[in-house]
Amino acid sequence: MLDDMPPPDDMAELERALSRISHLLSRAKEHDRTIDEAGVAVDRASAPFLRALADASAPLRLGELATLLGVEAPHVTRQVQRLERADFVERVPDPDDRRAQRVRITAKGADAVECIRAVGRRWMSDALADWSDEDRHRLAALCHRMVDDFLRFGAERRESDRGRPA
């Protein structure tokens, strides 16, 4: 049951701003424009997988990738198969379990991610050209802090839910 108290005004404004950002970043036309400018053939559903694998310090199990991206295992399997066919990722043996495999990004995949990110950085640089260095640094720090807090809160909620009777 939802709390009858309305959220503080700043939370309502923050939610509205985040919704606007999410919409802006997930628009199909924006993705297509970015991909065209980057010169890589990556569909919108595959891009987050490539980014996650590029940021990973080691190859990931499919289940780890699903958890990281908050998606179901069959979706991961389909995306990994698609990315394998494009030579953006490859499966490698899991050193901890010979029956399992992990997925790692290939050099071609890492190059694709860097091209996509370069376009994004250029777009942000142009859009925020009038912002001071201090404001941009502060925004980045606050965004990282917010995401870290959201992840921590989500993990705590999942842990709390595990202790509840079904």
UniProtKB/TrEMBL annotation:
<feature type="domain" description="HTH marR-type">
    <location>
        <begin position="11"/>
        <end position="148"/>
    </location>
</feature>
<dbReference type="InterPro" id="IPR036390">
    <property type="entry name" value="WH_DNA-bd_sf"/>
</dbReference>
<dbReference type="InterPro" id="IPR039422">
    <property type="entry name" value="MarR/SlyA-like"/>
</dbReference>
<dbReference type="Pfam" id="PF01047">
    <property type="entry name" value="MarR"/>
</dbReference>
<protein>
    <submittedName>
        <fullName>MarR family winged helix-turn-helix transcriptional regulator</fullName>
    </submittedName>
</protein>
<dbReference type="InterPro" id="IPR000835">
    <property type="entry name" value="HTH_MarR-typ"/>
</dbReference>
<dbReference type="InterPro" id="IPR036388">
    <property type="entry name" value="WH-like_DNA-bd_sf"/>
</dbReference>
